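Z., the sequence and structure:
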Amino acid sequence: MANAGVLGAGSWGTALSVLLCDNGHQVTTWSIDESEVNMLNEKREHETKLPGVKLPDTLIVTNDLEEAIKGKDFLVLAVPSPFTRSTAAKMCPYVADGQIIVDVAKGIEESTLMTLSQQISQEIPQADVAVLSGPSHAEEVGRRLPTTCVIGARTRKTAEYLQSMFISKVFRVYTSPDILGIELGGSLKNVIALAAGIADGLGYGDNTKAALITRGIAEIARLGVKMGGRLESFTGLTGIGDLIVTCASVHSRNRKAGYLIGQGRSVQEAMDEVKMVVEGVYSAKAAAKLAEKYQVAMPIVEEVNQVLFEGKPPAEAVDDLMLRESRSENRALQWEE
């Protein structure tokens, strides 16, 4: 049995806290929101973000950051991506040398273009930072439905240790050394999911969504490989796997926000109605900046940015994608003539 601290008591942090308790670990979960802590302790259920999932009796919930960090064998950082850096800065004084922090959020910082693990490493240089990602909606993990994810870490030792902590009969975990590829796949898919939701909101069909998923992973992989990620990551669970579930699932907050935008809501109205952080909105500008920096064509990302931030009508964005210059699907494939 290990002693784990989970920082962040939203839907994902709560679901992973339950999973780790099920695996026999002692878990302390922290939230900055005192009312959330009181609700979890009194109701033993996250009534707003993970209704119907009962908290194990052994789970400790606190708003004392030091209590959640000190003496823990590993930490799970589960705050929404816009708050990763600020939370990491608050954590730093309590984190021991070599203490493992596994980040489970997905996003890219617009101002620096850094991934979340890079931000954490910058704010907590003494930590051993890893990531957990894959097609894994909290609602299903909390209900103990079979799910598969990937742990990315700097060393095989850390990856296999975390694998042994999380793996169970309902949560299969693979390992990978490609932290960058895992994070890029997990972050950029949220932008494509916004596009898929917009298409749904416009009343388009399965053909449209299949096209967005397929061409979306092509965009993500082009950029990811150019930045140093491995192609295998983008064809695996944290690439195409995560993209499929985020574009198609009723649980996806990014798809839902896109759907509302496609139906005519403003970006702010859509985010307010979703009632949770829509990370694709925060990653969209960063994705466009990365595409420009690395000189990679990302037309779906470009159109999403124009819809989100420049007031472009969603139907016009789809038209412009469909009427782009004709080209070969894969330029690496050559004619024999």
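The mean pLDDT is 95. Residues 162 and 256 are 32 Å apart (CA to CA).

Let me know what you think.
H.
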